[in-house]
Amino acid sequence: MKRSYLKLLIDIVMAVAVIMLMEPHVTGLRAHELGGLLIFVVFLVHALLNWKWIACMTGQFFTKLPMKSRVNYCLDALLAMGFFLIALSGMAIAKTIDFTWLPLPGNMMFWRMLHGSAALLTFTAAGIHVGLHWKWVLCHCKKRNQEVVHA
Ligand code: HEM
Ligand code: HEM
Hints:
By secondary structure, the chain is an all-alpha fold. The protein has one domain (about 5-150). About 80% of the residues lie in helices and about 0% in strands. The chain contains seven helices and no strands. It has helices spanning about 5-20, 25, 30-50, 50-60, 65-95, 110-130, 135-150. Helix 1 (about 5-20) runs antiparallel to helix 3, helix 3 runs antiparallel to helix 5 (about 65-95) and helix 5 (about 65-95) runs antiparallel to helix 6. It starts with a helix and ends with a helix. The model has no long low-confidence stretch (mean pLDDT about 95). The protein binds protoporphyrin IX containing FE (HEM) (2 copies). One protoporphyrin IX containing FE binds near residues 21, 37, 87, 91 and 93.
C-alpha cells in the first residue's frame, strides 16, 4: 500500500473514531474506554508517518519558517497535549477498566470536568487541524478515485 493511502486511511479512521468517542452514551462505556485507549496507538502511527516533518520543524522553529507551518506545528503540539490530558483524566474516571493502581491525585469531580472540557477543546482543535489539511485530503481522495476507475 502506498504511504499516502495509508496516511489517508489512518486519517479517516481517526476522524470517525474521535467523533464516536465524543458520544460515550451511544457506544457504551466499555467500548468508549477501550477505544479511547486504542486510538492512541493510531495517533502514534499518524505522528510516526509525519516524523520527518516534526523533526524538521522542531529544528527550524526559531529560524525563518512560513507562518502556516508555525501554526500547524503549534496546533499539533496542542492536539498531542489535549489528547494526553483526555487519556490521563479518562483513566482517573474509568469505570470498566481498573486504573486504581495509578497514583492519580485529586477528586473525581476535577478529573471528570477536565475530561469533558479537554475533549471538547481538543475536538475543536482537531477540526481546525483537518481543515488546514483539507486540500491534501481532497487531492488524495481524487487521486485514489482516478486510480480505482482506471484499474
Ligand atoms: C482526529 C484526529 C486527527 C486527524 C483526523 C488528523 C488528520 C490529519 C491530516 C488529514 C493530515 C495531513 C495528511 C497526513 O499527513 O496524514 C495530518 C497531518 C499531521 N497531523 Fe494529524 N490528525 C489528527 C490528530 C493528530 C494528532 C493527535 C497529532 C499530534 C500528535 C497530529 C499530528 C499531525 C502532524 C505532525 C501532521 C503533519 C504536519 C502538519 O501538521 O502539517 N495529528 N493530520
Ligand atoms: C480520544 C479519546 C477520548 C475522547 C475524545 C473522550 C471523550 C469523552 C466525552 C466527550 C465524554 C462525555 C463527558 C461529559 O459528559 O461531560 C466522556 C466521558 C467519559 N469518558 Fe472519555 N474520551 C476519551 C477517552 C477516554 C478514555 C481513554 C477513558 C478511560 C480509560 C475514558 C473514560 C470516560 C468515562 C468513564 C466517561 C464518563 C461517562 C459517564 O459516566 O457518563 N474516556 N469522554
